[in-house]
Automatic annotation (TrEMBL):
<dbReference type="InterPro" id="IPR036188">
    <property type="entry name" value="FAD/NAD-bd_sf"/>
</dbReference>
<dbReference type="InterPro" id="IPR002937">
    <property type="entry name" value="Amino_oxidase"/>
</dbReference>
<dbReference type="GO" id="GO:0016491">
    <property type="term" value="F:oxidoreductase activity"/>
</dbReference>
<comment type="similarity">
    <text>Belongs to the flavin monoamine oxidase family.</text>
</comment>
<dbReference type="InterPro" id="IPR050703">
    <property type="entry name" value="Flavin_MAO"/>
</dbReference>
<dbReference type="Pfam" id="PF01593">
    <property type="entry name" value="Amino_oxidase"/>
</dbReference>
<feature type="domain" description="Amine oxidase">
    <location>
        <begin position="106"/>
        <end position="359"/>
    </location>
</feature>
<feature type="domain" description="Amine oxidase">
    <location>
        <begin position="12"/>
        <end position="91"/>
    </location>
</feature>
<protein>
    <submittedName>
        <fullName>Amine oxidase</fullName>
    </submittedName>
</protein>
Amino acid sequence: MVLPVAIIGGGLAGLQAARLLHQAGVGFRIFEARDRLGGRIVSADAAGRPAEDGFDLGPSWFWPGMHPAMAATVAELGLAAFPQHDEGDVLVERMPHRPPQRFAGFRQEPRSMRFVGGTAALVRALAAGLPEGSIQLGTPVAGIALDADHARLTLRGPDGRMESVAARQVIAALPPRLLEASIDFEPAIEPATRRRWRDTPTWMAPHAKFVALYERPFWREAGLSGMAQSMVGPMGEIHDATTASGAAALFGFLGMDADRRAAAGTALLTRACLGQLARLFGAEAANPAATLLMDWTAEAFTATADDRRGGAHPLPQHGPWVSAAWQARLSLAGSETSASDPGYLAGALDAGARATADALRRLGVPGHASAS
């Protein structure tokens, strides 16, 4: 059996591709390395388990006015959203052993929006409409080889055994850098294309996010928005992470590189982050109900060794992401490949839609122009 389309990766881009293929009546299967869907999207409970009303350990925000195509998808899926809390004053921590400065807050425009139920609500909504049996979890793709009129994927199953699957089209819905580092190609990808993939920064991969959960959002009672900037650390940027249901939390991005985080360890980082929150928001912040720490650099299915050095946000790039013999079989769909919004949720949806359109044209699906 030869699949019409194989999708590598069950994150937002892969699920968007699956949704559009299903709407077009084209068969597919998603091969996801993790034991869950969502990729860099994780909404977790106080114990760190995926939850339907969780705290976002990956991306939290989207901007409907800036990303109308994403806004249309969200509306079509019937998802509810609410604005990021920004009412109240902002704190700025400039120097060690000096109290933070307090400034009048301001409403950000365009407003950052969050999903009711966490960003994983978008993942659940996309997956809910897919046919049964179309998603295969715990199955990394180790290699892809061209074979006559199809590509053959080598899969590593949950039990460690290798198997192969053939597909007429392949959509690689993972970051280009991770694709280059983790999957073998036969014939080999051209050096210039491999270099482009490797040099494209992976969104979220260098970062770590700390979340402190509380019984109530006490900082709001003090007239604070929960927003803070710090040149002292360990967190450089802090925000209110309270959910739509009222579960209170603060979150921050750690402002130190991956090697320093690894050397410090979770326990020390947690103490340092709580100490910083207490400096900023008072003693009550030192006693959370629970804490969560997600270091994306430690996620093997997100980051490579190159991501430990950090890097800028991915920028829009133009021109084909695939060259030579692979152009007829392979499309890239990671958020980083979006020509309009790389490194955003909207970019993942955009890239997934573009890759799907490419695959449908090559398959000769009615209503899609044949590939030139």
